[in-house]
Specification:
Structural class: alpha/beta
Distance between the termini: 73 Å
Number of strands: 29
Strand content: 15-25%
Shape: globular
Radius of gyration: 24 Å
CATH class of the largest domain: Alpha Beta
Number of domains: 4
Largest sheet: 7 strands, mixed
Bound molecules: ligand MGD, iron/sulfur cluster, molybdenum atom
């Protein structure tokens, strides 16, 4: 091919905003990305990660051949050898007990791939043990939304509605660093006079006029207090008929300003100001990120936010009420179509007899042939080497991103056979017995569903390199290799996509009115139930999809979490993405692993800026340089999880939310001590930057 230039409109591989941009190609290779004003989500903005994303496509580390571990070493092999090895090692497990095979998917995969992965696990292999990394991401918010409304679409309104709100409470959502284009909607609201309150133990960047820095894991107390105060002021008027209101109000009736201020480590006056402004606002909006959700009580905490939004009359109003900000590129679609341990396509439930029958008929298998609910993500990892003997991982890097990662790596190493389908040599891929080289975003067709439930087309711009194969073909190959390929023969991708759309018909997340042709012209927010359906920008209205049609509000136990001398919390920085497989390889994207702590905390622990600190958590330890900064409140240390041997060496492998099975990524007891080594070269020992930052926390009497 000579000098052929072309431009393909597609979506970014990274976060849940799912910006559209133009990918420019020369001679079949991606050379440039330009934003487009025609993007329905971001209107022409693309963040620096998105702009840098094309460097992965032909990175020198790109996996271009299957790799098989022989005598302890990974060696390139042909596809035939790779698939034969799969058949030889996994076949006997499936014959004796299919539950011995686990499957682990991802919110980074397109809808079609997540659909196929669920079908592969249940119909192909017959194992119940499939779950995915969204368990570590959206499961608490999803569980809380489902139990109150029978529906889980992270935002029940288009992003543009945010501009209508006059008070925005950000609970543990670092929007400026994690979802940058969403800032334009916050700015639009602020320009119209809205107040923005950032509730985060760290003063993160952004547009907030008010910063409240509570201790991690105390958000439910703030929401409960506001509800109790509003009740006392006669300001409650439920958004719609609901069950559970009396119990919800009874659960918060003993909360007092001073008591909650003490538990959260903030000033009572700041809480009172917050409650007053919430009571006075016309259209307050509560948005949560992973801060309050990735907690041992994450589901209940989200319920407390829902209860406040609902009983104050704002839930379901365009731009008001409550919403959760989904994280991964297809974090929303990824939790709808059957890669979750309890779920069937279209957000159907594996325990619901009618849902099971529908999908069994659709797939042409007996209903009794569909397995039941399997292990959730972390339970699946902890069962590796025990009842789970082989595992397939696609689109995730749990050796870095799972909680208590040292323990998870130990379990992965104890497997008889680990298969990783990836595009780059992630830390997990490098532990595998079989590595299968898959496809990246720009190399495949498909759809993703963004944080507003907007379904968009991803378009193929280039082919896969070397011997790499498209992920969906690999999944079909594995079914055939195991002698279970009958239902995995698709003439082309379009046939798979058509099957996927049809499989969702009648489900809560119904995409059956969509087609590639419709999505070529515009985007649609689900449900889209027939081929003339305009989509559903606002899906939360009564009657809800609960058995009674009424909202089911959940009373939340208003317990104060035990207070540690030093609490770990974890999260992200602007320049890196997730476990870092993709972004750490990109020299244009910055960031270093460190532990952020307040000058007072550093003083208490005898630490200086830049000094290496030995940190130990419930399931491991690591050493990181101290980044002393007044942006973090005292008593809290923050570690980002983008690097091996960073945050997840310190998180607990076993502390899970009982409802959602979400790990407590954002609270752990931490010990910190200085090492005798000299200061780390990564950071200077000069006085920390940003000393003028205002963090609103309660000063402990000294
Ligand atoms: N740059 C970048 N962007 C990303 C990603 C990335 O890796 N890098 N990942 C994407 C994904 S998958 C996700 S899920 C989203 C996540 O997006 P966010 O939820 O915004 O990100 P986090 O940094 O995990 O957590 C947000 C904030 O919660 C605060 N926090 C910690 N504990 C608590 C608490 O107990 N209460 C409160 N109120 N706040 C607390 C942290 O200090 C942090 O600033 O980002 C998406 N976008
Ligand atoms: N301590 C702590 N830990 C956390 C969190 C936290 O806040 N704190 N957040 C959690 C959250 S919210 C999330 S979402 C997880 C994310 O963590 P992971 O699940 O590990 O996600 P990624 O790091 O994005 O890993 C994606 C892997 O899949 C590959 N990949 C990407 N796209 C494709 C594709 O299309 N096909 C194939 N075959 N491979 C692909 C990439 O190369 C990479 O190796 O981490 C969780 N872990
Ligand atoms: S905001 Fe998210 S989707 Fe948009 S360019 Fe950045 S990483 Fe990609
Ligand atoms: Mo996430």
């Amino acid at each position: 091919m000579k000098d052929v230039s072309k431009t393909v409109r597609t979506t970014c591989p990274y976060c849940a905003v799912q910006c559209n941009f133009d990918l420019h190609l020369e001679d079949g290779l991606a050379v440039k990305i330009t934003p487009t004003k025609e993007c329905a989500v971001a209107g022409g903005t693309v963040c620096k990660k998105g702009l840098a994303s094309l460097s992965d496509l032909r990175h020198k580390d790109r996996l271009t051949s299957p790799l098989l571990r022989v005598n302890g070493e990974l060696r390139p092999v042909s596809w035939q050898e790779a698939l034969d090895a799969f058949a030889a090692r996994v076949g006997p497990l499936l014959d004796s007990d299919p539950a011995q095979l686990g499957v682990f998917g991802s919110g980074a995969l397109t809808n079609e791939k997540t659909y196929l992965l669920g079908k592969l696990a249940r119909v192909g292999f017959g194992t119940p043990n499939i779950d995915y990394n969204g368990r570590f991401c959206m499961s608490s918010a999803a569980t809380a939304m489902n139990r109150s409304f029978g529906l889980d679409r992270g935002l029940g309104f288009p992003l543009a509605d945010i501009a209508k709100s006059d008070l925005i409470l950000l609970f543990g959502a670092n929007v400026a660093e994690t979802l940058p284009p969403v800032m334009q909607y916050l700015k639009a609201a602020k320009d119209r006079g809205a107040r923005i309150v950032n509730i985060d133990p760290r003063a993160t960047p952004g547009l907030a006029q008010v910063q409240l820095s509570p201790l991690p894991g105390t958000d439910h107390l703030i929401a409960g207090l506001l509800l109790n105060l509003l009740n006392g002021w006669g300001r409650l008027r439920p958004s719609a008929p609901a069950d559970g209101t009396d119990e919800v109000l009874a659960a918060v009736q003993d909360l007092t300003l001073n008591g909650v201020a003490e538990s959260c480590g903030v000033d009572a006056a700041d809480l009172l100001r917050l409650a007053r402004s919430y009571a006075q606002a016309h259209l307050p909006l509560i948005l949560s990120g992973r801060g309050p959700e990735q907690q041992v009580n994450g589901t209940d905490t989200v319920s407390s936010l829902i209860n406040l939004a609902f009983l104050s009359g704002h839930f379901g109003r365009p731009g008001g009420g409550y919403g959760t900000l989904t994280g991964q590129g297809n974090g929303q679609g990824g939790r709808e179509h059957g890669q979750k341990n309890d779920q069937l396509p279209g957000y159907r439930h594996l325990k619901d007899p009618a849902d099971r029958q529908f999908m069994a008929d659709f797939w042409g298998v007996p209903e009794t042939g569909l397995p039941g609910v399997g292990l959730s993500a972390q339970e699946l990892f902890l069962a590796c080497g025990e009842e789970v003997r082989a595992l397939i991982v696609i689109g995730s890097n749990p050796a870095v991103s799972a909680p208590g990662a040292a323990r998870v790596r130990e379990r992965l190493a104890a497997l008889d056979f680990l298969v990783v389908i990836d595009v780059l040599p992630s830390e997990t891929a490098m532990m595998a017995d079989l590595v299968l080289p898959g496809s990246m975003w720009a190399e495949e067709e498909g759809t993703t569903t963004n944080l507003e439930g907007r379904v968009q087309r991803r378009r193929r711009a280039m082919t896969v390199p070397g011997l790499a194969r498209e992920d969906w073909r690999i999944m079909c190959d594995l079914a055939h290799a195991a002698g279970r390929g009958e239902k995995f023969t698709y003439p082309d991708f379009a046939a798979l996509q058509a099957e996927f759309f049809a499989a969702t018909r009648g489900g809560r997340a119904d995409y059956s009115g969509l087609s590639a042709a419709r999505l070529d012209v515009q985007t649609y927010q689900w449900p889209v139930t027939h081929d003339a359906h305009p989509g559903t920008p606002h899906p939360y209205f009564a009657p809800y999809r609960t058995p009674t049609g009424r909202a089911r509000l959940h009373p939340v136990a208003m317990q104060t979490p035990p207070r540690a001398a030093l609490t770990l919390t974890t999260g992200r920085i602007a320049g890196q993405y997730q476990s870092g497989t993709q972004t750490r390889r990109n020299p244009g994207l910055k960031g270093v692993a460190d532990v952020q702590m307040h000058p007072d905390t550093a003083r208490v622990h005898g630490l200086m800026h830049g000094q290496p600190v030995v940190l130990s958590g419930p399931d491991g330890e690591t050493t990181l340089p101290a980044n002393v900064t007044p942006k973090v409140r005292p008593g809290v240390a923050f570690v980002a999880f983008h690097w091996p041997f960073s945050a997840n060496e310190l998180t607990s492998a076993t502390t899970l939310d009982p409802h959602s099975r979400m790990p407590a990524f954002k609270s752990a007891v931490l010990n910190a001590s200085a090492t005798s080594r000299a200061s780390s070269p990564a950071l200077s020992t000069a006085s920390p930057p940003g000393s003028q930052v205002r963090t609103a926390y309660r000063k402990e009497p000294s």
